[in-house]
Amino acid sequence: MAELRMDQLPTDPLLHVLSYLSYRDLSRCSVVSRRLNELSRHSPLWKSLCSKHWLLTDAQRQQSGLSWYSLFRQYYSDLGRYIRFYPVLKSCWEQIKAYLKERCPRMITSLKDGATEAELNDIEALIGCRLPDDYRCSYRIHNGQILVIPGLMGSMSLSNHYRSEVLLDVETAAGGFQQRKGMRGCLPLTFCFHTGLSQYMALEPAEGRRCFESFYPCPDQMAQDPSAIDMFITGSCFLEWFTTYVQNVVSGEFPIIRDQIFRYVHDKSCVATTGDITVSVSTSFLPELSSVHPPHFFFTYRIRIEMSSSALPDAACQLDSRYWKITTSDGNVEEVQGPGVVGEFPVMTPGKVHEYASCTTFSTPSEYMEGHYTFHRLANKEEVFQVTIPRFHMVCPPFREPPAPTQKTGTPRLDDDDSDDFCNRDGDSDDLGSLRGINMAALEGAWCPRHI
């Protein structure tokens, strides 16, 4: 082995060793000896830790007038309990604010300043439950939104149905904390003024829920017990729930439409090109119009049809009809065809883009659709051709039923053809609406023809 020459050693080998230590070990070293104490306060060591744990920059350090060591201690005394979560959540907040500033700036003005540690402690005392540290950490950075529309946590619009979810500030959330049977120990995370829909976080493992998981509640409409609540699971903890959503936004997974974040998911494989025309599809699940019992799952899909800008002018064409082949997870196959798309017959010319949204309901947890459009050339109506619609899957989020299901009533299981009866049937619509799950008023008129 080649010997290490003396002039290759660092000027102070101990500094080199200390550079590999965590903030805890570096702090412990500072009390071992005078020499270690001097070295452990070496400014570049604490600069790297300030950058790693608090995302601090040189400009922020200069503005504070403190050394890197003192600045780290200042942040740690205030936010030390959140050191595992802070860099991830702070980075997420900065990313989404930078994105919104460029794409829909009015939403940034709705964000509230962070809550104080004392305010979060007071909320815990008020509701009698511990808030998870990842939730507290995020709310130290931004305390949710002012209650305005559009909501930070995404929107959806279809026909006469509109949803936009606000990220609730902690004080408003505490006012909606649930202690009633079926929703015991649940704190609302979001709220939609139009549908009454909320996402909740379970603060204790009760009634079949896991501690700190997030979910949409879904009243079991076939149970005799009105407190029987099914759940569409949206995250295992606040950190996963929030960071996953932010990454979908800043990566462009969710489109910005009319200055709002629309929660359509686009599978990159759902693209098909036929000649000069490309068709791509994105989908979205609507929990507020869905139920587990009876099994009724509502999806909307958005289709983009685009003709290449390099196409020749005589390639111009018009859509005449559509054909769908729908396959459910239980193996049933349905074929649907009809004129136009949502009552329109778009004309495609070079560079032209046509987008439309439609919807479908089904009684199995997943299905996939595929098909084609039929076009004719404008220059020659006799020239008819088909354009492929790529296969796209619609999969219901994971759902969980209450641990001890109550006895069901004699209400029959519904097929798709029964959707109007389901919408308009009499019963406990007021009670269901108060659960902030399925809002029966929102259901009226919201059902649309399948596969249009």
Give a brief rundown of this model.
The protein has 452 residues and is of the alpha+beta class. The chain has 14 helices and 22 strands.
Descriptive report:
The protein folds into three domains: 11-81, no CATH class; 86-245, 3-Layer(aba) Sandwich (SMI1/KNR4-like), CATH 3.40.1580; 264-403, Immunoglobulin-like. The model is unreliable at 406-451 (pLDDT under 50). Helices cover 27% and strands 29% of the residues. The protein has helices at 13-18, 23-29, 34-40, 43-54, 58-64, 68-79, 86-103, 117-127, 133-141, 170-175, 238-250, 419-424, 429-434, 440-443, and strands spanning 111-113, 142-145, 155-158, 161-164, 166-167, 186-188, 190-191, 200-202, 214-219, 229-235, 256-257, 260-261, 265-274, 277-285, 297-307, 317-328, 333-339, 347-348, 353-362, 366-377, 384-395, 399-400. Helix 4 (43-54) runs parallel beside helix 6, helix 7 crosses helix 9 (133-141) and helix 7 (86-103) packs parallel to helix 11 (238-250). Strand 11 and strand 12 form a beta hairpin. The strands form seven sheets. Strands 6-8-9-10-22 form a five-stranded antiparallel β-sheet. Strands 16, 17, 18, 20 and 21 form a five-stranded antiparallel β-sheet that branches. Strands 13-14-15-19 form a four-stranded antiparallel β-sheet, with no helix packed on it. InterPro entries: ApaG_domain, ApaG_sf, F-box-like_dom_sf, F-box_dom, F-box_SCF_Substrate_Recog, Knr4/Smi1-like_dom, Knr4/Smi1-like_sf.
